[in-house]
């Protein structure tokens, strides 16, 4: 089994055992993931060090061998020069001293020849040198230098062949060495890619073990903010710190559900309890105003007018609370095709008296949209009521309805003071009233825009304040289009 296969098996085992990291704390998970991700890198460093050591050792050995061969060739050539000079001296002197010099030169040349030709490197020309050397050992048989010259010429030719053969052998060794280095580099490259990929996979695995619980926490927080039903069950494979946060969020969800139930019950009971005495007060005011129980003076009639106006206003507030309470209990919208022109016309007729000091500019590009009819009517009612109450008098109120990219866009705009950016963030919260005096000189409930936001949310949409060039204030409701139910 190769090193790469062993590394791959080790990485797969680490990935398979990744679930064990989920059981620890967040610190253990991060440190463990970091250490596990370092294992392939450590293996890569170890393999690189091993290959570098082997290349260095191979380079040193090859260099020493090449240097040794070159040195032996030079020594053989030097010995051949000494041998040639000794042979020429012998042909001239013909004495014992010259003969001993030739014998010593032959012995040295034979040693140098054996050292070169008996080496591990195969050298061509050694046979020719050996043949010529055998002839030259019978140097005493040569009568003149002319008889010696052909043998010396053949010796020089054989030495040239030996030198060229050694050069070729050195070049072949260098080629093999370069090929080995190239193969090692290629192996190091794909091994580096493999181990870095494994390390990256382990890093992604470790990060995923943290990201998944965090995503679940974000989902729970979003569900708590939007009140989207039951929360998902507690995680069994997550760092204990994140599991603790998830438990706290579940507790918070239960607490918010309890508070929401208490608020809904309080609004429902309070509104119903107020309706009964209010009806009695209105009936009493009507009897006194009609003079059923006796005639009233002018000042008493003025007081009764104020009481009737207050009871009417209180009745409106109670109806708003009941409407808001009913809206809170509605969890799902029923989408149908709604005739927008007809609904807008009905809203305008209902607010005809309030709109007498305003001009209307209605631009409806979509004849019908997919929406919950009851929720859409509440949106139009409250946005139009808001524009009438806070818009500038003798100015135009704009109503535009269009469909773009399977999304219905409802714009209701009016002239008047722009809404400060710092007020927009909590403008759609319940019981938040806008600044400035209303055109109807009454105190608002602060529920109108909140009802608009809740109606849009139930239809999976939203409401925002946008900037337009034809009015100072514009509310845009976005409703995704769905199939009719």
Overview of this structure, please?
This protein has 485 residues and is an alpha+beta fold. It is built from 11 helices and 7 strands. The longest helix has 82 residues, at 145-226. The protein is rod-shaped and about 175 Å long. Residues 14-23 have low confidence and may be disordered.
Order of helix and strand elements from N to C terminus? HHHHHHHEHEEHEEHHEE
- Structural Rg: 51 Å
End-to-end CA span: 63 Å
How much strand content do the residues show? 5-15%
Total count of strands: 7
Structural class: alpha+beta
With strands numbered from the N-terminus, the spatial order across the biggest sheet is 2-4-5-7-6
List the total number of helices: 11
- Contiguous low-pLDDT stretches (5 residues minimum) are 14-23
Shape: rod-shaped
* Major sheet summary line: 5 strands, mixed
Quaternary form: single chain
Mean pLDDT: 78
- Measured as a percent range, the helix fraction is 55-70%
């Amino acid at each position: 089994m190769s090193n790469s296969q062993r590394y791959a098996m080790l990485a797969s085992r680490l990935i398979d055992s990744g679930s064990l990291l989920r059981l620890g704390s967040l610190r253990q998970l991060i440190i463990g993931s970091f250490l596990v991700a370092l294992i392939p890198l450590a293996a890569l460093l170890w393999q690189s060090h091993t290959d570098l050591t082997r290349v260095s050792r191979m380079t040193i050995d090859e260099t020493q061998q090449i240097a040794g061969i070159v040195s032996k060739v030079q020594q053989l050539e030097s010995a051949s020069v000494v041998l040639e000079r000794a042979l020429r001296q012998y042909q001239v002197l013909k004495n014992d001293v010259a003969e001993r010099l030739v014998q010593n030169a032959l012995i040295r040349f034979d040693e140098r020849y054996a050292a070169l030709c008996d080496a591990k490197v195969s050298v061509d020309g050694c046979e020719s040198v050996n043949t010529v050397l055998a002839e030259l050992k019978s140097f005493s048989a040569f009568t003149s230098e002319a008889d010696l010259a052909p043998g010396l010429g053949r010796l020089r030719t054989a030495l040239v062949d030996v030198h060229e053969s050694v050069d070729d052998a050195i070049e072949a060794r260098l080629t093999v060495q370069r090929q080995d280095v190239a193969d090692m580099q290629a192996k190091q490259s794909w091994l580096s890619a493999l181990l870095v990929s494994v390390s990256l996979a382990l890093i992604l695995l470790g990060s995923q073990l943290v990201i998944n619980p965090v995503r679940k926490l974000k989902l729970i927080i979003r569900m708590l903010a939007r009140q989207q039903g039951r929360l998902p069950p507690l995680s069994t494979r997550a760092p204990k710190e994140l599991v603790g946060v998830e438990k706290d969020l579940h507790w918070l969800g239960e607490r918010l559900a309890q508070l929401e139930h208490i608020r809904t019950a309080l609004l429902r009971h309070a509104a119903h309890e107020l309706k009964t005495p209010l009806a009695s007060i209105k009936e009493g005011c009507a009897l006194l105003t009609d003079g059923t129980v006796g005639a009233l003076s002018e000042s008493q009639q003025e007081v009764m007018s104020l009481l009737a106006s207050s009871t009417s206003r209180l009745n409106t507030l109670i109806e708003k609370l009941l409407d808001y309470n009913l809206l809170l209990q509605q969890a799902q919208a029923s989408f149908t095709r709604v005739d927008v022109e007809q609904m807008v016309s009905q809203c305008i007729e209902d607010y005809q008296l309030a709109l007498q000091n305003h001009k209307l500019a209605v631009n409806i590009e979509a004849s019908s949209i997919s929406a919950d009819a009851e929720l859409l009517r509440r949106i139009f009612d409250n946005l139009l009521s808001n524009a009438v109450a806070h818009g500038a008098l003798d100015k135009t109120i704009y109503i535009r309805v269009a469909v773009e990219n399977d999304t219905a866009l409802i714009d209701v705009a009016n002239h008047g003071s722009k809404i400060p950016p710092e007020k927009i963030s909590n403008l759609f919260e319940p019981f938040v009233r806008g600044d400035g005096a209303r055109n109807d000189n009454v105190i608002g409930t602060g529920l109108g825009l909140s009802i608009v936001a809740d109606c849009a949310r139930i239809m999976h949409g939203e409401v925002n304040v946008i900037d337009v060039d034809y009015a100072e204030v514009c509310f845009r409701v976005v409703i995704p289009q769905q199939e009719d139910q």
